[in-house]
Amino acid sequence: MNAREAVYEMWRERGMTTMFGNPGSTELPMLKEFPDDFRYVLALQEAVAVGMADGFAQASGTVGHVNLHTAPGVGNAMGGIFNAQANKTPLLVTAGQQARSLMTLQANLTNKDGTRMPHPLVKWSYEPPRAEDVPHAIARATYMASLPPRGPAFVSIPFDDWDADVDEADVAHQTKRQVGGRQGPDPARLGELVEKLGKAKNPAMVAGPDIDMCGGWDAAVKFAEKQKLPVWATPAPGGGRLGFPENHALFRGILPPAIGPAGETLKEYDLVLVVGSSVFPYYPNIPGPLLGENTELIQITNDPDEAARAPMGDAILSDPALALEVLNFKVEESDRDAPDPPWPAGDPEESDPISSSVAAAVLADVWPDDGILVLESPSSTLAMRSRLKLSKPGSYFFGAGGGLGFGLSAAVGVQLAQPDRQVVCVIGEGSVQYAVTAFWTAAAYEVPLKVLVLRNEEYAILKWFAEMEAVTGSPGLDLPALESAEVAKAYGVPGQRVDGRDALHQALTDALAADGPQLVEVKVAPGMALA
Ligand SMILES: Cc1ncc(C[n+]2csc(CCOP(=O)(O)OP(=O)(O)O)c2C)c(N)n1
């Protein structure tokens, strides 16, 4: 058995039969005699390959795999790897390396310091000392990626390793190993929490993205209902997934992302339980008290770093879904009064061109029952969330790292992972450009993704930040004449540009009914859409 046969067998065993990548000469030996039961998804640039693998991994629940072209490929991919670590995406990142015999003389394409290059964005980075160690190194990276906190792990593989003989019996051990990562809570700490909940007069929950990643939606809903907790979503910039149905009567909204306003929002509660989130993904810098004087905060997270770096409150380490399940077993139905349901959002104001809030309302009108939103439209994140009120698990993916380029590429990966659900990517016309070649992959692989481009002809959110930061006279904030529909067409994705509410409604209805990928570009008013 050679290293290639061993590694493909391991991937097959783990259901990792989809590989994203952009190949070069150093990766071709890995792809030799590519097995029929595997799928290679070609991306035309490495950051896009990583984004696709990220979306695929998150939406499929398997470890994603992306293969990169030695040093320049890793370099191009870094923004995507940054997003993957912020998303806590289980991702195996492999890269080619020059032949072992040519590394010391530094032949062309040698990655001089292959293992250092992806730091500090990966959990583990390795170049096996011997060709025979390639299968074990890849197995180890795969476990590292999948153990909490999940994230990217990297292996650099010299060109000539793939044909090397490996010990079949040794490899068989790795192929069969199951390495699980779910840890339950310390019963004593959870007991203290149950006691505090029993005494609290006005507690609340903040639901984070890891509830969704860990399969904890039902447990979160049951717990909030039993305890009559108002529920906030973790601040939007770090909320890569949704931990609670946003149409639920207990749902209050998205916690403001800056320190001062977040502390102010939470000060009415005496106990705040933060589940499956960092405390908090703060941004931008608006100082203020972290928490009200009479508020106690307790975080449940499976990420020791998240627990350690929180600026206030206690932390209990546990898989969030397991902790919620145990809590549901331990807590009684609370006799606190249920909080009043929130005010329904009114209709957005009509204007010409329409606002992004109107675009969001139109999208909500035609939203497919099982729809998945992949969102990268910075100035209308809040409007999209508040109008769509997504209410099913696994229905929302957002780049928690904030690096643009995640949205369009991840949407392709999510749709490949979830062929029976309808994926809609809502994206600003500026954001499209960071992953524009994803259109080609969507067309080439007939990925039936729908893309709604909001064309406001500016970097709206940066103008908003400029105002907040009292920065006047900044260049580079206007984006005239980016023809997204034309660009998509050139890559093979049918697209049309529309204006106005009715035309948008019709275009989205048609796009959703069509078989393949489709793009709708709509002109929207400049500025932020906050609701
Ligand atoms: C890789 C990367 N480069 C730059 C930025 C900074 N940035 C944040 S939002 C934004 C504007 C995006 O424009 P668009 O998609 O049109 O959204 P709008 O703000 O108009 O809603 C930019 C450039 C970033 N977040 N990531």
What's this model, at a glance?
With 531 residues, this protein is α/β, with parallel strands linked by helices.
What would you say this structure looks like, in words?
By secondary structure, the chain is an alpha/beta fold. Helices cover 38% and strands 16% of the residues. It contains 21 helices and 18 strands. The protein has helices spanning 3-13, 28-31, 46-60, 70-87, 100-103, 134-146, 168-176, 187-199, 209-213, 217-227, 259-266, 304-309, 320-330, 356-366, 381-388, 406-417, 429-432, 438-444, 460-468, 484-491, 501-513; strands at 18-21, 39-42, 64-68, 91-97, 125-126, 152-158, 203-207, 231-233, 251-254, 271-275, 296-301, 314-317, 372-376, 396-398, 423-428, 450-455, 495-498, 518-523. The strands form three sheets. A six-stranded parallel β-sheet has the order 2-1-3-4-6-5, sandwiched between helices. Helix 4 links the parallel strand 3 and strand 4 (91-97). Helix 3 packs across helix 16 and helix 10 runs parallel beside helix 13 (320-330).
Biggest β-sheet description:
6 strands, parallel
Give average pLDDT, whole number. Answer: 97
Which structural class best describes the helix and strand composition?
alpha/beta
The geometry reads as: globular
**Proportion in helices:** 25-40%
What separation lies between the terminal Cα atoms?
59 Å
Return residue spans where pLDDT drops below 50 for at least 5 consecutive residues. none
Bound molecules: thiamine diphosphate
Number of strands: 18
SSE topology:
Layout: H1 3-13, E1 18-21, H2 28-31, E2 39-42, H3 46-60, E3 64-68, H4 70-87, E4 91-97, H5 100-103, E5 125-126, H6 134-146, E6 152-158, H7 168-176, H8 187-199, E7 203-207, H9 209-213, H10 217-227, E8 231-233, E9 251-254, H11 259-266, E10 271-275, E11 296-301, H12 304-309, E12 314-317, H13 320-330, H14 356-366, E13 372-376, H15 381-388, E14 396-398, H16 406-417, E15 423-428, H17 429-432, H18 438-444, E16 450-455, H19 460-468, H20 484-491, E17 495-498, H21 501-513, E18 518-523
Parallel strand pairs: 1-2, 1-3, 3-4, 4-6, 5-6, 7-8, 7-10, 8-9, 10-11, 11-12, 13-14, 13-15, 15-16, 16-18, 17-18
This protein binds thiamine diphosphate.
The site of thiamine diphosphate has 20 residues, from helix 17 and helix 19.
